[in-house]
Amino acid sequence: MEFAELIKTPRVDGVVLHRPFLPTVEGTLCLTGHHLILSSRQDNTEELWLLHSNIDSIEKRFVGSLGSIIVKCKDLRVIQLDIPGMEECLNISSSIEALSTLDSVSLMYPFFYRPMFEVIEDGWNSFLPQDAFKDLESMTDEWRLSEVNTDFSVCPSYPPLVAVPKDVDDDTLRKVSTFRHGGRFPVLSYYHKKNGMVMMRAGQPLTGTNGRRCKEDEKLINATLRPGKRGYIIDTRTVNVAQQAKARGGGFELEANYPQWRRIHKALERSNVLQDSLIKLVEACNDQNHSMDRWLSKLEASSWQSNVKEILTTACLAAQCIDREGASVLVHGTEGTDSTLQVTSLAQIILDPTCRTIRGFQGLVEREWLQAGHPFQQRCSQSAFSNTKPRVEAPVFLLFLDCVWQILRQFPCSFEFCESFLVLLFEHAYASQFGTFLGNSAADRSKLSLPEKTVSLWSWVNRPQELERLSNPLYEANSLVIWPSVAPQSLLLWEGVFLRWNRSSKCLDEAYEEMVHIIEYNKELQNKVNSLRRQLAELETEDPLLQES
Amino acid sequence: MEHIRLPKVENVRLLDRVSPRRSRVGTLYLTATHSIFVVNEAGVRNETWVLHSLVFSAEKQAATPSGCPLIIHCKNFQVLHFVIPRERECHDVHLSLQRLSQPESYEELYCFSYKPNVDEVERRQEWDFLDLKTDYSRMGLPNSLWKLSPVNRHYKVSDTYPADLFVPESATPPVIVGSSKFRSRGRFPALSYYSKENHAAICRSSQPLSGFSARCLEDEQMLEAILRSNPCSDFMYVVDTRPKLNAIANRAAGKGYENEDNYSNIKFQFIGIENIHVMRNSQQKMLEVCELRSPSMSDFLEGLESSGWLKHIKAVLDAGIFIAKAVAEEGISVLVHCSDGWDRTAQVCSVASVLLDPYYRTIRGIMVLIEKDWVSFGHKFSHRCNHLDGDPKEVSPVIDQFLECVWQLMEQFPCAFEFSERLLITIHSHIYSCQYGNFIGNNQRERIELGYEK
């Protein structure tokens, strides 16, 4: 299938582009198989280079013979193209519609992208499970890396290598996988060095209406308990929903079968509700009315901030169980691919300072989201401007990033990266030239040969020039567990994402630059002081006369 | 000292605002000026000082097995939750605090007894630190268009206006006096801010006593004089910061607003900022929301919205922006008034000044601005901030709103201000504490009578 078939008109001159904050510009619009490009006539500079996969929806408007196409992007940007000529306008718009709704993954841009930079470190190999396991091994010998899922046959959404308790063999794992939703048997998510407690995650147990039990599942999670100690199971569904799940073959861990585990229900919203929440939030943010009257109630009606609060609260709860109560934790929802991952990854931000470094955070996203089987392809296929009824799309990962931003704002010196890194991840999860977020699982990625055929986002991010841009100048490495406030007053609307295109950030950027300069200058002066002190010390040891004074 | 029934109570518990389990036990002392809570834990002494003059209310609750709760709300929004072991002691502390925090006369205010380690010469110098005439010179005044008028030197024309006022060059004393008779409380149109670059000016006054059809030649001449002081434009704005309905209602009482037909070349505009009673209730509701124990996000957002607080802040900012644009972009002079010209008028003129002039965004500048548009122009600090035990209906967070507007601007333009949030909080705190004499009384004349400089 040739892209050319879908492009009705590859090129139109005299197109006017309207973008937020920049002056309107006129130029030539080109459509390629993957991009919408506008080159200005002035000096042939590219004013716009937009991936079709970044387009959520388009709208056409006609005033006389001038047609306008309003392009609404997944990164929440809205741009307008004024196209002279009705026919050209209609052709362009139907071409864009076709090109932005391609089904097959292997037609996506990452398969065609040739990097303009030298790949020094291949991001596809930067965060392999075996390397993560080596770190674990250095801290404890209670775990082993199992290859039971090497061919993805035991659990199609898990990675090929998983960490399980040492004494649990592969046969046990196979049996447990038949007792958990999607074959997602409990695996290690995080090991808390301070006290040896662990966090595990899984899919819901398939107890069904008969109260089915699986001794192997009990053995598996009990293996993580210290003698005489209890563990906590955090179920991200309400008690009612968990009960109702039994009718569909699912359910929850019965106290009788898991006497050493205490179950806590902390309901988090399901994916379909979250998409609706995002749409309402973005609508409220883009309301041109500028009236204070309904702003807060529209914000409240979207429930976005409520969702942020609930997720953060649950993550704090999991972290508290591990750090304060000194107990192990098992987290699951229904499938274990959405709210479960929000909780486990956020809990690690709270507990583990390594996750707050740039590399550590990348590793966290790799482990707890990509390899853990969060269905990115499905969840990020549409964003807030989609005009089709949401089916599988949901801003689960965006919510996670929002929660990280909340913590980052409350603890500005504890993160090695700054807000731009989080915004970058949001953008690339929805549309990217890199293959990192393609596919729904490690199995998908392997089948599509992504590591061989596409470039990893990490390869690009970990170059010195990018790292510098994404670093937080206020960072001071510490080994603390940080507890965010979840009071409503402490949780703000993430302007950097939701108001990014409504309000110029020029003044805030200036203030940020100023801050960076002050910190650099301070460091320079500090170095100077240190060097002068050293000189003085040297002189003092050399010259006995000085010593006397 | 005679108001202190019980100067010392031991074994008092101070509950932590966030987690009631984390309370501290110590000794509560009452002095003439402060309550001091002293905790001695593991050899480390920790003191919490609360100025009596900052106490808004002290509420004694029903005794519980662990003691008698006493909740103190401060005017700077600090809340202290004490638990006093014996009810009798709690009763005494409660009554003492009530009396100590509600002085009956000006002499009891803290500023009259506050004696920091500053010598007399320095102290006098500090009162002269902010000379308003210097600010007018900075604007280039007096000049050929604006002059200093001696008309109110002895506060005879308007006793709530300052002694020094700038008026248009062409405004003669008869015109000024005539205009003042047509304005509520004699507060005739006078200069607040003059833009050197384009001669546009912001003037302020109170509402005209126009009723349904009254006219005053001198008042019309006064506005014409203001217009003539701006050679670059042929009309001026008259901005009434009240909602239209309120202004119309005032007509029945013989007051009201300017009729465009009677005044030549004015464009009249209502801005619609609510009155002091609405603002008082709004702040009260907002504080209640903030004090909710464990609110859900919904509770919080809904509560905040129904308080309307942010809506009012936006209204004040919008008004300031309108005036600033008129001056800076259109080069048109503006006359601003509300009812009495000392609440919304002060807010709006000073917000516009902050937007227009970078000087007012410096540390010294903001102080000068407050001295000029608030202190000297007769904002009723003592009434609004309840310095003495007075009429609760007069109390309203008017200056609070101005300070918050400045803070909102600082959030959007972090590099444009020389000072930080801390300055605004400090100013706010001392407006209410009366530790210093700057804000006592209700106008310049009263302040001088009280002998604040001593």
UniProtKB/TrEMBL annotation, chain A:
GO biological-process terms attached to the record: negative regulation of autophagy; phosphatidylinositol dephosphorylation
Superkingdom to which the source organism belongs: Eukaryota
InterPro entries named in the record: Myotubularin, Myotubularin-like_Pase_dom, PH-GRAM_MTMR6-9, PH-like_dom_sf, Prot-tyrosine_phosphatase-like
MF (Gene Ontology): protein phosphatase binding
Record Gene3D superfamilies: Pleckstrin-homology domain (PH domain)/Phosphotyrosine-binding domain (PTB)
Any one GO CC term of the record: ruffle membrane
Membrane topology: Peripheral membrane protein
Record keywords, A-Z: Acetylation, Cell membrane, Cell projection, Coiled coil, Cytoplasm, Endoplasmic reticulum, Membrane
Positions of the Myotubularin phosphatase domain: 123-498
Family classification: Belongs to the protein-tyrosine phosphatase family. Non-receptor class myotubularin subfamily.
PANTHER family tied to this protein: MYOTUBULARIN-RELATED, MYOTUBULARIN-RELATED PROTEIN 9
Official protein name in the record: Myotubularin-related protein 9
Biological source species: Amphiprion percula (Orange clownfish)
Automatic annotation (TrEMBL), chain B:
Keywords of this entry: Hydrolase, Lipid metabolism
GO biological process, one term: phosphatidylinositol dephosphorylation
Any one Gene Ontology cellular component term annotated for this protein: cytoplasm
Entry superkingdom: Eukaryota
A Pfam family reported for this protein in Swiss-Prot or TrEMBL: PH-GRAM_MTMR6-like
Residues bound to substrate: N275, I276, C338, S339, D340, G341, W342, D343, R344
Similarity comment: Belongs to the protein-tyrosine phosphatase family. Non-receptor class myotubularin subfamily.
Record-given protein name: Myotubularin related protein 7a
Protein's organism: Amphiprion percula
